[in-house]
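Worked example
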Amino acid sequence: MIKKMRNKKGVSEVVATILLILIGIIAIGIISYIILPFVRNVLKPQSVCVDTLDKIKIKEESCYTSTSTEVRIEMGDIDLKEIRVVLNLDDGTSIPYALIDGSTTPGVGVIEFPEKGGGEKTYTFNKKATSVDIYPVLQDKKCDIGKDSLQLSICS
């Protein structure tokens, strides 16, 4: 019987191959158990912002005078918590504003968001800006991916 086992060298190679396959499957299981939740948690906040693409826009009618800036915003079908407006001045500085529906913003007044689904609203800021950036804010997350920018012209 022992002589028969000594002549069967292929059995140990099969067992070794099966063990390597099982070790690989276990390693993949452990890695996916650790990595997948991490990736989901990192990517989930960004996936929320994908919904903002092309949903908030600065209209070409936006313009500036020597003392103020008028920014006309069009809003698509989206629920925003806030619209962040950044006025870029001639001297290279920027002034950020947080527009929250129903609130009062210094230098702007009472804020009302545009109607969802294509509504437009003009906001007048008491600063002269030559360009403007807007960022939608969803669930306390500023969405850079949904940003819109415009070089302003002088109001006629």
Q: What stands out?
A: The mean pLDDT is 86. The domain at 56-154 is CATH 2.60.40.10 (Immunoglobulin-like). The chain has two helices and twelve strands. The longest strand covers residues 131-138.
